[in-house]
Amino acid sequence: MNHNLNHIKQDYKNIPIPEALRQNVELSIAKAKTELAQTPSPAKLPNRRFLKSPDAVTGLPKEGKRNSPDAVTGLPKEGKQKSSAFSIWIVRGASSIAAAMLILTVLVNSNASIAYAMEQIPVLGAIVKIVTFREYKHQENRMEADIKVPEVEIKDSKGNLMEDSTQKLNDQIEAYTNEIIAAYEADLKAAGTEGAQAVDLDYEVVTDSDKLFSIRFHQTITMAGAVQMEKIYHIDKQTGEMTTLKDLFQEGADYKTPITENIKKQMKEQMAQDKTVTYWLDSDVSEWNFTELSDSVNFFIDEAGKLNIVFDEYEVAPGFMGVVTFEIPTETVADIVKDGYLQ
Amino acid sequence: MNSQKMQQLVEQELLSSYDSLYRLAFTYVKNEADAMDIVQESSYRAIKNSSSVKNAAFIRTWIWRIVINTSLELLRRNQKEVSFDETPEYGTEDIYLDYDTIDALDILNEKERAVIVLRYFEERKLQEIADILEENLNTTKSILYRSLGKLRIKLTEGELCHES
């Protein structure tokens, strides 16, 4: 009687499940969990897994600030290239020993140059600099991680170490990086020898003006596709304290509404201009929609003194949009911004 | 129940049913990359919003609903993007498995397709399907009748309502 339906059912049951599916699901779960953990209390990680970088020495070559040329960042970042990215993994697996050695050499060399480049000379107020960094590195079969953990030092204008502020910032950075390491180790354990994943965390100083010192972290997780996440910390150089978006504006001023409205306007304009652009503004699933700026939103101030708001992949748009950045015209918030932060 | 516990339950459910979720997504988008995207995206959303589930008994229906919504969203986006891009690719024909029979589901609308897949392929109870679609039981039954009619499949009343 329902012969036809059984036939369809058979084909349905025969739909092949891609090999990478389980891991991708686990990765999505891990990503969501990482983002949900607001006050992370990760397990203490054994220190021997960190390679101590050479101590920073004075000397200021400006080169080599961004990244070592490792294999990880060479992988395709677009979610649309899934199948090809996967085949790259298979190829890489075969030559993993050689690759691991190569990466290690490159890193030993670049550690020192990065450390030099990170020395910062301030103009006035607090002096903020990255004094050293530790590195969590792991490579086994097709699983690898390269996570750089900088250590920052904040001194007042007289050159005395501001212990509380320094401690607070370094604790935050460590909590953040430990979270990433813990997620990687959980994946490693779960996947056994079948795993194929690369986690890369790098940082750069994006702002070092009279007013602000900002350090930006880039996290890339590469499996079949890749997800990117950002985290930016700011130090007010007048006070040496950590700064959030709220602190750029006058006490009690409503900065969220004008910025939110401006971003929504930019989203609509972009979507009207280019049909391939999608933001979640009025999608069917209302809880995904971008309604208001969150307190902990990532931002930075670019060289022109403009405020930029950064959203992680998936935060306000489907994954294929990647990390998205909106430049906020200064006139939008001209009435409420504190003097000197924006131009 | 605290949100930590709920998150764990959602995670367990995702890890035990991701292959079924994938197959359902596949019946909508018919290609591996998109179906995988949908399952990943849905998993992410489910964990992120797990604290909004009030009762653990609804986790499963809630996750299915997310997958259906995500599939539809992706379909709509693709419709906008590639409506002129329908030239057949002769060179790749033999790589794809023959999904002619699954293509038969194309005559069904989105809801009808979900009802058929969930009822007959995933063997869900009618009440559960009604919950997933946020319809009442009678509406769900009539969607099921209508879908079977479109597929030209005739079942007796007994077969239709038999709960496995």
Could you describe the 3D structure shown?
The complex is a heterodimer of chains A (343) and B (164). With 343 residues, chain A is of the alpha+beta class. In chain A, 32% of the residues lie in helices and 23% in strands. Chain A is flat. Helices cover 68% and strands 0% of the residues of chain B. Chain B is mostly helical and 164 residues long. Chains A and B meet through helix 1 and helix 2 of A and helix 1, helix 2, helix 3 and helix 5 of B.
In terms of DSSP E residues, the strand content of chain B is: under 5%
Instruction: Indicate the CATH topology of the largest domain in chain A.
Output: Heat Shock Protein 90
Spatial shape of chain A: flat
**CATH fold node name of the largest domain in chain B:** Rna Polymerase Sigma Factor, Chain: A
Poorly predicted sequence stretches spanning 5 or more consecutive residues of chain B: 82-97, 154-158
From the alpha carbons, calculate the radius of gyration of chain A and give it in angstroms.
22 Å
Number of helices of chain B: 8
Give me the Rg of chain B, rounded. 17 Å
Form type of chain B: globular
User: N- to C-terminal separation of chain A?
Assistant: 75 Å
Oligomer kind: heterodimer
- Strand segment count of chain A: 9
Biggest interface, residues from each chain? A-B, 47 and 52 residues
Task: Tell me the major beta sheet of chain A.
Answer: 6 strands, mixed
Helix content of chain A: 25-40%
Instruction: Let me know the CATH homologous superfamily of the largest domain in chain B.
Output: RNA polymerase sigma factor, region 2, helix turn helix motif
Please report the distance between the alpha carbons of the first and last residues of chain B. Answer: 30 Å
